[in-house]
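User: Sequence for TetR family transcriptional regulator below. Tokens please.
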Amino acid sequence: MSVGSRASIERVRGRGLTGRQAQLFDQLVDLFLAEGFADFTLDDLAGRLRCSKSTLYALASSKEQLAVAVVKYFFRRAAGRVEQRTSQADGPLERVGAYLSAVARELRPASARFYQDLAAFPPALEVYGRNTRIAAARVRSLVDEGVRSGAFRQVHAAFVGEIVSTAMVAIQRGEISERTGLRDAEAYDELATMLLHGISAPE
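Assistant: Structure tokens for TetR family transcriptional regulator:
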């Protein structure tokens, strides 16, 4: 795939979506996560979503730009829900666990085909990579909070964040499943358990 002008993507991002447009993005996210996106044409998508091509062109001016816009929408929607669940947890240790569990929950519907298409399309892969870096920074901030409060032992928060980031990428690429036989949800459980036992302060 190649991406032309970024104008339509920026236009969608810069304005509030109508209810119908938000509904279409939700449907596109579900479809792409389940089946990938590389093989779809705009005609295919219009048929699956029961809308006109002009409706899709209002979201993005090409299929390639639409794929990037949908991936951005997915991560933006997921981030909001992850933060909501994290804010409901009491205490630094619980917030780290809640954050990782919420990330796992949001990514769980993604199919192997979705990740294959993501890996083969650099503009969308960059969105994924950028959000992984944001997630790593968020983990670092949560660990920093726990260290300052005395809930965690004195650990190097940036290093912990990088380890978590590397593990998250490996899980979502299927590498952990291939090497260990763990399903993604199980791998996230193991990651959370290992991290939380490693950083919690001794009683």
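The CA atoms of residues 129 and 182 lie 23 Å apart.
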